[in-house]
Amino acid sequence: MTNTANIFLPTVPRTPAAKATQPFPWVGLITLAAAVFLSVTSEMLPTGLLPEMSESLNVTESQIGLLVSWFAFTVVVTSAPVAILTRRFPRHGLIIIVLVIFALSSVLTAIAPTYELVVAARVLGGVAHGLFWSVVGAYAAHLVPKAQIGRAVSITVAGGTLAFVFGVPLGTAAGHLLGWRLSFVALGVLMLIGAALVWKFLPPVARHSTSTSTTDAAASAPQGGRRDATIPAVVLICFITGITMVGHYSFYTYIAPFLLDGLGVAASQLAPLLFAYGVAGAIGLLLVGTVFGPRPTLGLVLGLAASAVSVTLLALFSATLPVALAAFVLWGMAFGTLPPLMQTRMLHAASPEIRDTASAFYTTAFNAGIGGGALLGAVLIETVGLEFVPLVYVGLLVVALTLVVVTDLVGSRRS
C-alpha cells in the first residue's frame, strides 16, 4: 500500500503495545537497508576508482583517497549540529530529503571539471551523509521492541555490507568500462529511485523511541537535572568505534593500489576481488544476525581478533598470492561483523531518551575514523610506503580489542 502520510508533518508515536503486537517490519527495514546501501556506495565509490579519477583530474592517487577524508570530516563537523537543527523535523521526511541531496552531490561530482569542484560536491554529500546516519542510526530501534533491536540493526546495516558486495565492485566495473563520471551519474539516478521507495514503503516514526514502558523510561531519565546515566557507556563505545575505523580506512581506502602493486593482481581482477571481500562481509553480517546479535561483546572480541590476524597474514604473505587472498577474504568476513555489533551495543547501552543523540555522536565517531584513516593512510604512503599501512592498522585493532576486553571485565566486576 502506498504511504500517503504527509512526510512534513509530525508523526503520532507508536505505543509499546502496538510495537509488541505488530508483525516484524520486514518491508520497512529492507527499504531502510536500501537507503543505507546507496549511502555507503556513494561514500566509498572513489576507493575503487582511484586510478581513473587520478588520471582524469590530473592529481595523485593519495589526493583521490583524500576525497573520502573530505566526505567523512564534513560528517564529523556537521553531523551533531545538523541533527540538532533538524530535531523537530519528521525522521521519514528527512531521509527522503537526504537521498535527493545525495543524488545532487553525485551528479555534481560527475560533471565537475576540476579536483576542487569534486571536493566541493563531496562536501555537500558529506553534510547529507551526517544527517542521514543521525536519523537512520536509531530508526530501526524506533520500529521494533528492544529485544529485536539487534535483529533490526543487522538488517539495516546489511545495506552497507551489500554496498561492499555489489555497490563498490559494480561501480568500479562500470567506471572501468564507461568512465568514472558515468558511474556517479548512475548512482545519482539510483538515489532518486531510493527516495521514492522510502516515501512509499518505509513506515514513519516519532523521533523518540517508546519501546520501553513509562516506568522504565522514567527510571532511565535524568532526575533532578542530572545527566543521563548511560552517557559514559555511549562515549566509550564511540571511542572504540573511532579507533577501529581509523585503522580500517587507513588501509581499505588504498586497497586498490595495494592489490595491484603490493600483491601484483591484474586490473581486471580488482572488481572480482572487491566482490569477494563484500560477500565475505555479508557472511560476517549473517553471523551477527544468527549468532552474535544477543552477545555483541563476544562478537566484537572475535571480530577484532580475527581482523588483526587476517590483516597481519595479508601483510606478511603479500608475496604468496594464495595465502594473501585467503587472508583478504577472511578480513572481509571479520570486519563485516564489527559495524552492526558496535551499533547494536551502542543502542543497547543508550537509554531510549538519548538514542537519536547517541546515534548522531556514533556517526561522528565512525566518520571521524573514516576520514582520519584515509588521511593517516595518505601520510603513511607518502612517508614510509604502502606496505607499512596494514601493520599500523593491526596496532590500532589491538588497542580497540584491549579496550573492549578491559571495560567488559571492569563492568562484570561492578555488576
TrEMBL record:
<feature type="transmembrane region" description="Helical">
    <location>
        <begin position="152"/>
        <end position="172"/>
    </location>
</feature>
<keyword id="KW-0812">Transmembrane</keyword>
<dbReference type="InterPro" id="IPR020846">
    <property type="entry name" value="MFS_dom"/>
</dbReference>
<dbReference type="Pfam" id="PF07690">
    <property type="entry name" value="MFS_1"/>
</dbReference>
<feature type="transmembrane region" description="Helical">
    <location>
        <begin position="323"/>
        <end position="341"/>
    </location>
</feature>
<dbReference type="InterPro" id="IPR050189">
    <property type="entry name" value="MFS_Efflux_Transporters"/>
</dbReference>
<feature type="transmembrane region" description="Helical">
    <location>
        <begin position="361"/>
        <end position="381"/>
    </location>
</feature>
<protein>
    <submittedName>
        <fullName>MFS transporter</fullName>
    </submittedName>
</protein>
<feature type="transmembrane region" description="Helical">
    <location>
        <begin position="393"/>
        <end position="411"/>
    </location>
</feature>
<feature type="domain" description="Major facilitator superfamily (MFS) profile">
    <location>
        <begin position="28"/>
        <end position="414"/>
    </location>
</feature>
<keyword id="KW-1003">Cell membrane</keyword>
<dbReference type="GO" id="GO:0005886">
    <property type="term" value="C:plasma membrane"/>
</dbReference>
<dbReference type="GO" id="GO:0022857">
    <property type="term" value="F:transmembrane transporter activity"/>
</dbReference>
<keyword id="KW-1133">Transmembrane helix</keyword>
<keyword id="KW-0472">Membrane</keyword>
<feature type="transmembrane region" description="Helical">
    <location>
        <begin position="119"/>
        <end position="140"/>
    </location>
</feature>
<dbReference type="InterPro" id="IPR011701">
    <property type="entry name" value="MFS"/>
</dbReference>
<feature type="transmembrane region" description="Helical">
    <location>
        <begin position="229"/>
        <end position="251"/>
    </location>
</feature>
<feature type="transmembrane region" description="Helical">
    <location>
        <begin position="271"/>
        <end position="292"/>
    </location>
</feature>
<feature type="transmembrane region" description="Helical">
    <location>
        <begin position="24"/>
        <end position="44"/>
    </location>
</feature>
<feature type="transmembrane region" description="Helical">
    <location>
        <begin position="178"/>
        <end position="199"/>
    </location>
</feature>
<feature type="transmembrane region" description="Helical">
    <location>
        <begin position="64"/>
        <end position="86"/>
    </location>
</feature>
<dbReference type="InterPro" id="IPR036259">
    <property type="entry name" value="MFS_trans_sf"/>
</dbReference>
<feature type="transmembrane region" description="Helical">
    <location>
        <begin position="93"/>
        <end position="113"/>
    </location>
</feature>
